[in-house]
Design brief:
Order of helices and strands: EEEEEEEHEEHHHHHHEEHEEH
Helix content: 40-55%
Strand order of the largest sheet: 1-2-6-8-9
Number of strands: 13
Mean pLDDT: 91
Radius of gyration: 21 Å
Number of domains: 2
EC number: 3.1.-.-
Subunit structure: Homodimer, forms a heterotetramer with a Cas2 homodimer.
Largest sheet: 5 strands, mixed
Low-confidence stretches: none
CATH architecture of the largest domain: Up-down Bundle
Enzyme class: hydrolase
CATH topology of the largest domain: Four Helix Bundle (Hemerythrin (Met), subunit A)
Protein name: CRISPR-associated endonuclease Cas1
Number of helices: 9
Cofactor: Mg(2+); Mn(2+)
Length: 343
């Protein structure tokens, strides 16, 4: 159980939620685990739930406290709310901003600031941890380039220029991604980002990691009442979770990329985990996908200190924390959306 802002996250599986007085009670196998007052909660997010009592749902519905149900792996299932109150205002604000490219750019640039800042520190961490095995001067040069691009991104006022600076930053970062692959170089190499389909082992792993991260981010957004399909940087397209793709930008490098690099460099995945289809696509084998998912779930349990909230949370809660902060910005509770800045 973790209290974050005004949201209670119940991440222990198979927990039953019930009401006692003005408190939510968490039980497992008829044994009480914890109790928390409801009067200052905005929402409850339960992962791998057993159920919630009708009394609790009725109490929360009357007081505008949402109850969000997720699977054990973090996939969004449902959000139980009472009469439409704050959420309709929140979504109307989201849609209104999305219609304005200037207002969209004001939010979107912070997603990209987070992305470029974190990519810079992915490189710096590699230099710190593996400096003797790397061309330190080459990587430092790219790190300095990203620092210079950050200054331009922070001052951008329109989406076209933002996409241009983001493209330059991504090009620079990708130039040294292969340098950070330190093991199995014959089978694991990165020349460029390719997808639909991925054409090498590294891109196959990256695509799978990005898909899982997008799903986790979309779940976080839906959990706070935002529309994951209406973005600010990624524009509307049927079936695309544009806002989730926006928000996950800041987590690609520090979360997904570092996760993939660790799988390769620690020899957890080898060439035997993949097969090639007739069209050239490289695909993970079924058992290897299960192995990847198990490692991903383990990664989500690792603890970090959130750089803005200054609280210890698991990596798996980071997309949910960022969604809460975005909702707070859209409601006018904070002056600017704070990106996730990792070091």
């Amino acid at each position: 159980m973790k209290r974050l802002l005004n949201t209670l996250f119940v991440n222990q599986p198979d927990v039953y939620l019930s009401l006692r007085g003005d408190n939510v009670v968490l039980s497992k196998d008829k044994k009480e685990l914890a109790k928390m007052p409801l009067h200052n909660l905005e929402s409850i997010v339960a992962f791998g739930y057993t159920g919630a009592s009708p009394a609790l749902m009725g109490y929360c519905a009357e007081r505008n406290i949402s109850i969000v149900f997720m699977t054990k792996t973090g996939r969004f299932l449902a959000r139980v709310v009472g009469e439409s109150r704050g959420n309709v205002v929140l979504r109307k604000t989201q849609y209104k901003i999305s219609e304005s490219e200037r207002k969209s750019a004001f939010i979107a640039k912070n997603f990209i600031v987070g992305k470029v800042f974190n990519n810079k520190w992915v490189i710096e961490r590699s230099i710190r941890d593996h400096g003797l095995r790397l061309d330190e001067q080459r990587l430092k040069g790219i790190s300095n380039t990203l620092t210079e691009l950050l200054a331009s991104i922070r001052n951008v006022e329109d989406l076209e220029n933002l996409r241009g600076w983001e493209g330059q930053a991504a090009y620079s970062y990708n130039k040294v991604f292969d340098d950070m692959i330190l093991s199995q170089k014959e089978d694991f190499y990165f020349h460029n980002r390719n997808r639909r389909p991925p054409l090498d082992n590294v891109n196959a792993l990256l695509s799978f990691a990005y898909t899982l991260l997008a799903n986790d981010t979309a779940s976080g957004l839906e959990g706070v009442g935002l529309d994951a399909y209406v973005g600010f940087l990624h524009r509307d397209r049927p079936g695309r979770v544009s806002l989730a793709l926006d928000m996950m930008e800041e987590l690609r490098g520090c979360y997904a990329d570092r996760f993939v690099l660790s799988l390769i460099n620690r020899n957890i995945f080898t060439n035997e985990d993949f097969y090639q289809k007739e069209n050239g696509a490289i695909i993970l084998k079924e058992e290897s996908r299960k192995k990847f998912l198990q490692a991903w779930q383990k990664k989500k349990q690792e603890k970090i200190t959130h750089p803005y909230l200054k609280e210890k949370i698991s990596w798996g809660l980071v997309p949910h924390a960022q969604a809460l902060l975005l909702a707070r910005y859209l409601r006018g509770d904070i002056d600017e959306y704070p990106p996730f800045l990792w070091k």
